[in-house]
TrEMBL record:
<feature type="transmembrane region" description="Helical">
    <location>
        <begin position="154"/>
        <end position="177"/>
    </location>
</feature>
<keyword id="KW-1133">Transmembrane helix</keyword>
<protein>
    <submittedName>
        <fullName>NADH-quinone oxidoreductase subunit H</fullName>
        <ecNumber>1.6.5.9</ecNumber>
    </submittedName>
</protein>
<keyword id="KW-0560">Oxidoreductase</keyword>
<keyword id="KW-0520">NAD</keyword>
<comment type="similarity">
    <text>Belongs to the complex I subunit 1 family.</text>
</comment>
<dbReference type="Pfam" id="PF00146">
    <property type="entry name" value="NADHdh"/>
</dbReference>
<feature type="transmembrane region" description="Helical">
    <location>
        <begin position="122"/>
        <end position="142"/>
    </location>
</feature>
<feature type="transmembrane region" description="Helical">
    <location>
        <begin position="209"/>
        <end position="242"/>
    </location>
</feature>
<keyword id="KW-0472">Membrane</keyword>
<feature type="transmembrane region" description="Helical">
    <location>
        <begin position="254"/>
        <end position="277"/>
    </location>
</feature>
<feature type="transmembrane region" description="Helical">
    <location>
        <begin position="84"/>
        <end position="102"/>
    </location>
</feature>
<feature type="transmembrane region" description="Helical">
    <location>
        <begin position="51"/>
        <end position="72"/>
    </location>
</feature>
<dbReference type="GO" id="GO:0050136">
    <property type="term" value="F:NADH dehydrogenase (quinone) (non-electrogenic) activity"/>
</dbReference>
<dbReference type="InterPro" id="IPR001694">
    <property type="entry name" value="NADH_UbQ_OxRdtase_su1/FPO"/>
</dbReference>
<keyword id="KW-0812">Transmembrane</keyword>
């Protein structure tokens, strides 16, 4: 299926660019994959392996489910009249993946990382949701194909710049990436992933890149007038670069900024779009 191949290509491109920026070697991602495949799984005392494995495997699963409603060349894998709602619901389901991965090993650092992600999710989700509602209001529909059609005259990124900026911040948060990577912080020896090794870590990392790719892909139909891969690749490259240019943000400070700054701005943007539409 072309949509699945496109998602895999975007995720692989993100991993390759990330590895190249980190080590200045284009083959870094391939070497890391080979290294993880050859390592044994780590064991902790009295883990809940079933919950941990569900968490690890469900992250790429939910990322793929979020992708199925995203248009590519005017069509999506699954046509839905409520595509925006489905996309938002699936990225919220990924919260469970992080929590189970942190809870399952029965270890302190992964558990703290899981709590950090819950705090991050509660901080970013409301501004993110209102940014998506603003898009739906501007298009008069929750169907991503209708949202694309509504941008024939002007991209939503141009007359909804605040919503677009909030979406990009949310994209970093939903993929726990760059400045929003505190759930995997080095101060916690890797946080949620502290006890993951071998194939478990590889699958989890693949899920993370898939979430990032899906977030970048969705920016096209939501704000950039279409779901073409060129636009998705450009947004994805920006998100990857942010990781290597912007330091991680403390959760308490991000929560404060989100609720006191991003949320009012999101509501103001929604009000402006509502007035224009009316």
């Amino acid at each position: 299926m072309p949509e699945l191949l496109a998602l895999a290509a975007l995720a692989l491109g993100a991993a390759s660019l990330d590895g190249a920026l980190a080590t200045r070697s284009p083959a870094a991602a391939l070497r890391e994959t080979a290294r993880l495949l050859g390592r044994q799984r780590r064991r902790t005392p009295m883990p809940d392996l079933l919950l941990m494995r569900i968490g690890v495997v469900s992250l790429p699963f939910f990322a793929t489910l979020a992708m199925i409603v995203l248009p590519l060349g005017g069509a999506a894998l699954v046509e839905s009249s409520v595509g925006i709602v489905w996309f938002n619901a699936m990225e919220v389901c990924a919260w469970a993946s992080l929590w189970l991965t942190g809870w399952g090993p029965n270890s302190v650092y992964p558990l703290i990382g899981g709590y950090r992600f819950l705090a991050q999710g509660l901080a970013y989700e409301l501004p993110h949701m209102f940014a998506l509602i603003t898009v739906a209001l501007g298009a008069g529909s929750l169907d991503l194909r209708a949202v694309e059609e509504a941008q024939r005259g002007a991209w939503f990124a141009l007359w909804m710049p605040v919503a677009f900026a909030i979406y990009l911040i949310s994209a970093l948060a939903m993929a726990f990436w760059g400045p929003m990577s505190r759930p995997l912080g080095s101060d916690l020896a890797g946080g949620v992933t502290a006890e993951l090794s071998g194939p478990d870590r590889l699958v989890f990392q693949a899920g993370r890149y898939l979430m990032l790719a899906v977030a970048a892909w969705a920016a096209g139909p939501l704000f950039l007038g279409g779901g073409g891969l060129a636009g998705a690749a450009a947004v994805l490259a920006v998100l990857v670069l942010v990781k290597h240019r912007v330091p991680a943000v403390r959760m308490d400070r991000f929560t404060q900024a989100s609720w006191l700054v991003l949320l009012p701005l999101a509501l103001l943007q929604l009000l402006v779009v509502g007035i224009v539409v009316i």
